[in-house]
Amino acid sequence: METTSRVDTDGAPGTVTAEGVPAARRTVDGYLEAPFPWYGLDEAFTGPRWLMQVGTAADGTVQHGSVGHGHEPSVKTDGAAAEKERFAVVITVAASPVRRSGDGTGVLDATTVSSAAWLAGSGLLAYTWPPLMDHSLRDDWLDQQTETAFTLADDLGSAPWSTLSLPVDGVPVEFHYRESEFGWVLAGSAHTGVHIGAYGRGMSAYGLGFSVVKDIETYA
Fold first, then answer.
1. Residue 95: other Cβ atoms inside 10 A
2. Residues 43, 44, 45, 51, Cα dihedral to 10°
3. Of 185, 193, 187, nearest to 212 (Cα)?
4. Where is region (Disordered) located (predicted)?
5. Which among 129, 79, 133, 114 has a CA at the least distance from the CA of 185?
6. Helix residue ranges, H only, 65-196
7. pLDDT of residue 13
8. Exposure string (b/e) for 133-166, b if CB count within 10 Å is 16 or more?
9. Which residue from 53, 75, 123, 137 could staple onto 19, CB 3.0 to 4.6 Å apart?
């Protein structure tokens, strides 16, 4: 895949790591170190806002991160309980071209809209657990679904993706959008040189708007 790097838990340069669950959150410090602006839902959203985590390269450079809005999601085996959750997570990914690795031994993939789509798709899966699934089977299920999310992110021009126009800093932007039984995923680009991914459940994506976060510490 030319546009989307696979999950890498070590945070190697040029890779993007899947979004973790709330227990893996970091403090606001990592967000403050980012060389790019963070995005969240715009002022039309008046509910709770909270930090999640940032993803860094091997040299410590912040490459992406996510912030949450609404209820804090959790993995639940009770499908009815999960359906009551209303949340939207916004992921900001720094746009980077294809480039040489720091040690000069290889080439790092570009980060593109597909990178944001992959992070959003895998992020939604982190809070998904089909009802009645045996605990021992979840890892296998998650591996299979994560592979599917990766494949889908590599082909944003085909079904099940459609397009959806949403405001980013007040300007209409075309996003790639798909729904599943677990929630929705979307991905697009901002004029500030970053890519935006988002996923959620219980909140309609059609009414969302995004804007630069003026003070990331308000999410802490």
1. 17
2. -20
3. 193
4. 1-21
5. 114
6. 79-83, 113-125, 138-153
7. 31
8. eeeeeeeeeeeebbeebbebbeebeeeebeebeb
9. 123
Residue 177's DSSP bridge partners are: 162, 186
The series of mean pLDDT values per 10 residues for the chain, 220 residues long, is 36 38 61 96 96 87 94 66 80 76 51 92 83 70 80 90 96 95 93 94 95 94
Q: Domains of the chain: which residue ranges?
A: 22-219
- Give the helix, strand, coil percentages of the chain, each rounded to 5: 25, 30, 45
Strand (E) or helix (H) holding 189: strand 183-189
Are the C-beta atoms of 103 and 50 separated by less than 8 Å?
Answer: no
Number of neighbouring beta carbons within 10 Å of residue 196: 24
